[in-house]
Amino acid sequence: MTTTITITGAGGQIGYALLFRIAAGDLLGPDEKVRLRLLEIPQGIGAAEGAALELQDGAFGLLEHVEVTDDAATGFDGADLALLVGARPRGPGMERGDLLAANGGIFGPQGAAIAANAAPGVRVTVVGNPANTNALIAAASADGVPAERFTALTRLDENRARAQFAQTLGVPVATVGRLPIWGNHSATQFPDVSHATVAGEPAAEALAAIVGDVPAWLDETFIPRVAKRGAEIIRVRGSSSVASAASATIDHVRDWVRGTEDWTSAGVVSHGEYGVPAGLISSFPVRAVDGEWRVVEGLEIGEDARRRIDASVAELVEERDAVRSLGLI
Ligand code: NAD
Ligand code: LMR
Questions:
Q1: H-run or E-run covering 216
Q2: Is 122 helix (H, G, I), strand (E, B) or coil?
Q3: pLDDT tens per residue, range 150-162
Q4: CATH architecture of 2-152
Q5: Which atom number of ligand 1 is nearest to the Cα of residue 129?
Q6: Do domains 2-152 and 155-320 have the same CATH topology?
Q7: How confident is the model at residue 96 (pLDDT cuts 50, 70, 90)?
Q8: 0.90 surpassed by pTM
Q9: Which positions bind substrate (predicted)?
Q10: What is the pLDDT of residues 265-274, one digit of tens each?
Q11: Angle of helix 243-258 relative to helix 155-169, nearest 10 degrees?
């Protein structure tokens, strides 16, 4: 079988980091052939065409076909997976809210083009910021495609959280589990250590033994470090994260398609779980089962966690109201 994958913004930085990993089989495994559709705007077509030439030169056995286009109907034709990366990235000093108007106009037409042209079971992952609200806009414009098929990337935040947690505890990152992100992919996000495990065992005691005052460490060190990591990368590199974002995108889509053994994080449509207003695309602890994300239900939410989740969700509500007033949903 061959999977058709559309990547928007394929001529950009993240696109370049994604394409070769997909062609190498990191997304769908060593037996699944892929057909790539690279959707760009006219200014980005040259870069996407250059990437297509390099894909050819990579002689990837799994890569059946590459098409470069600036036409959304062609770009999403038959797409099983759509990775919506193309957007204007945040520069130094910009907050994600500044991007709403700039990027909101992109995702409505793309949602409509997905509904009209993609495969019936299409799964959409929005990477372009502000990712949660862009996913909301795309879903709202995609008549007939269930909102559950539109997701926003918060796996990069979870990967960052797991890496910081592992470094603090002095354990391999692969042993850290159950460290979900709640809310928005923004500085208000809540990386939640209250259920964290190391090698499958609760990590609370080990954490307290190392950091002492856990609430102070969360407040002053861990949560700001994770939530502001995007800005830190921009400050240090001079532009926003690329390879780590592409890698997290691979993690997200691979897990969605192939399933998870334990919890991870994804921005998915709320059905009112944990008091998050229905219809928002919010990050939750999730599992992927039978090709669908399922929110992990029944978790106890402490007072501090409740306050932090509510703050991030309030920002999502503000973003939704802003794009509503711009006529984008
Ligand atoms: P980039 O500027 O290098 O590339 C963006 C590409 O998108 C450009 O080639 C541009 O021509 C193209 N593009 C713009 N509008 C388009 C449209 N309507 N259709 C198709 N293509 C279009 O940026 P980048 O570094 O690759 O980042 C892409 C996006 O990903 C940004 O919004 C960035 O903020 C976001 N991002 C998200 C996460 C996350 O975790 N969710 C992490 C990192 C970056
Ligand atoms: C990130 O988290 O690295 C990206 O969303 C880029 C940004 O604007 O922070």
A1: helix 214-217
A2: coil
A3: 999 999 999 999 9
A4: 3-Layer(aba) Sandwich (3.40)
A5: 32
A6: no
A7: low
A8: yes
A9: 90, 96, 129, 160
A10: 999 999 999 9
A11: 110
Residue 13 is labelled as binding a ligand: yes
Among 157, 233, 283, the mutation site with the greatest number of ligand 2 atoms within 8 A of its Cβ is 233
* H or E element that contains 182: strand 181-182
155-320: in CATH 3.40.228.10: no
Give the amino acid at 303: E
pLDDT (0 to 100) of residue 222 = 98
Of 246, 174, 252, the residue nearest 21 (C-alpha): 246
What sign has the CA pseudo-torsion 141, 145, 148, 154?
negative
Residues framing ligand 1 (Cβ under 6 A)? 8-9, 11-15, 39-41, 43-44, 47, 85-87, 89-90, 106, 127-129, 131, 153, 156, 185, 240-242, 245
Neighbours of 50 (CB within 10 A): 13
Confidence of residue 104 (pLDDT cuts 50, 70, 90): confident
The pLDDT of residue 95 is 66
Q: H-type helices in 86-147, by residue range?
A: 99-117, 131-141
Please state, in angstroms and rounded to a whole number, the distance separating the CA atoms of residues 298 and 171: 28
Radius of gyration of the chain (CA): 19
What is the value of ipTM here, to two decimals?
Answer: 0.99
- Under the banding of pLDDT at 50, 70 and 90, the label for residue 169 is very high
Tokens of 259: 């399933």
Over residues 25-47, the mean pLDDT reads 97
Whether residue 12 is annotated as binding a ligand: the answer is yes
Residue spans per domain, the chain: 2-152, 155-320
**CA of 231 relative to ligand 2 center, distance in Å:** 7
